[in-house]
Amino acid sequence: MTAKRAFDVAGGLALLLVLSPLIAGIALSVTLGGGAVLRRRTVAGLEGRPFTMLTFRTRSPLAALPLLLHVVAGRMSLVGPCPLTPGHRECGGEGRRRLSVRPGLTGPWQISGRSDLPWEERELLDLHYVDHHWLGMDLVILARTLPAVRRRRAARFA
Fold first, then answer.
1. How far is the C-alpha of 70 from the C-alpha of 13, rounded, in Å?
2. Reported pTM
């Protein structure tokens, strides 16, 4: 097991444990609202192997909490390239390099503007991460993720 994978497992388990009351509350809230609790989407994992990614059916950043299960199971990483569908254009050609690492719960794309970025810039950020990632970079990205999500959320409500 690599240091990155050990960090993913330990961090994912710790976050699941600490956030389990919040996860249960969100699941209950979504259930009471009617309909399915989880949204399913097929994405390309490590080496392009597809898997079904689960998120809560809510529009908040908390929708991503079920992704921690994928991190612990080894289908995702805490930090990595943005998860994309297997047929997405960024999963082919030069972009195929992105499939040499697990997709991430967060990554350079998350702290650099998320959906405000043009596709080309997001692809460059992902490929730079794939070519240069190390545990120190992951720690910096993780530390910058929550403030980036808060800024985005605050801007939406301003």
1. 11
2. 0.88
